[in-house]
Amino acid sequence: MDLQNRINQVKERMNAACIRSGRKMDDVQLIAVTKYVGVEETRAVMDHGLLHIGENRWQNAKEKWEQLHNRGTWHFIGHLQTNKVKDVIGKFTYIHSLDRVALADEIEKKAAALDITQQCFIQLNVAGEESKYGLDPEQLFELARHVSQLPHLQIVGLMTMAPLETDAEATRPVFRELRRLRDELNDSGILNYEVLHLSMGMSGDYEVAIEEGATWIRVGSAIL
Ligand SMILES: *Cc1c(COP(=O)(O)O)cnc(C)c1O
After folding, report:
1. CB of 161 sitting under 6 A from ligand 1
2. Average pLDDT for 133-160
3. Cα of 12 to ligand 1 centre, how many Å?
4. What is the number of domains present in the chain?
5. Out of 18, 34, 40, 63, which residue is the most buried by the measure of CB atoms under 10 Å away?
6. Domain range spanning residue 167?
7. In the prediction, which pLDDT does 179 show?
8. DSSP label at 211?
């Protein structure tokens, strides 16, 4: 299958998942995760109209970003070391992996220096997997309270990675829980604005994630 067919297939499946769950296709955005490919394939993805690009390491993203950043919106989706914030700040419209106070403080510092507001997702390790990054959901409010004092950092949503399952259906409770946590965060009133987004669902499980309320899905291998 060529790129166009693979993209069409993902979009058809997204659409079917929206219909099944009574959602509008416009409410779900597709991030093309280009970490597996180089500049030319990333350019091709953009030529096919996918303008939200996800990368998980600056080292790997650098050349692609330098050549193509004007054309799209860039999402940093990988674990972020505090000393690497300087590389990604101001370049990626969204950081999906905020998972600790020290990282929030560093983002605040660097965003303040650039006089920008950095939009972030709080990454939660909902399934409690040892191998995964992300904050323990029990610490969500504590981090939110801290972030509420940081004027250059805005929380736009919550993000999670579900465990790798052969049966995508098995991921459903994880996605449902992320949604519940978002609603609970909004009900708490800790942040004086509403947190709208859920970044959840990858190639193996994006349909289930959409059924459970994903507003951003991050899809790599199903496209590239
Ligand atoms: C690689 C990656 C994805 C995409 O994974 P695929 O299974 O290839 O779709 C999504 N999110 C994160 C955080 C990733 O690192």
Report:
1. yes
2. 98
3. 20
4. 1
5. 34
6. 3-219
7. 98
8. H
CATH number at residue 74: 3.20.20.10
**Inside any domain, residue 172:** yes
C-beta of 110 in contact with ligand 1 (< 6 A): no
Note whether 165 and 204 are within 8 A (CB): yes
CA atoms within 13 A on the CB side of 177: 18
**Helix, coil or strand: residue 87:** helix
178 in a structural domain: yes
Regarding the beta carbon of 78 and ligand 1, being less than 6 Å apart is answered: yes
pLDDT tens across 106-125, in order?
Answer: 999 999 999 999 999 999 99
- Do 102 and 81 contact (CB within 8 A), yes or no? no
- Report the distance separating Cα 106 and Cα 98, nearest Å: 11
Closest atom of ligand 1 to 206 CA is 9
Cβ of 202 below 6 Å from ligand 1 = yes
* Residue 131 pLDDT class (50, 70, 90 cuts): confident
Rounded CA separation 71/59 (Å): 20
Mean pLDDT for 123-141 is: 95
In a domain, 224, yes or no: no
Confidence band for 187, pLDDT divided at 50, 70 and 90: very high
* Confidence tier at 62 by pLDDT (50, 70, 90): very high
The structure tokens 């303040």 sit at 112
Q: Dihedral sign, CA of 127, 11, 59, 108?
A: negative
Ligand 1 neighbourhood includes 178 CB (under 6 angstroms): no
185-204: burial string, b at 16+ Cβ within 10 Å, e else: beeeebeeeebebbbbbbbb
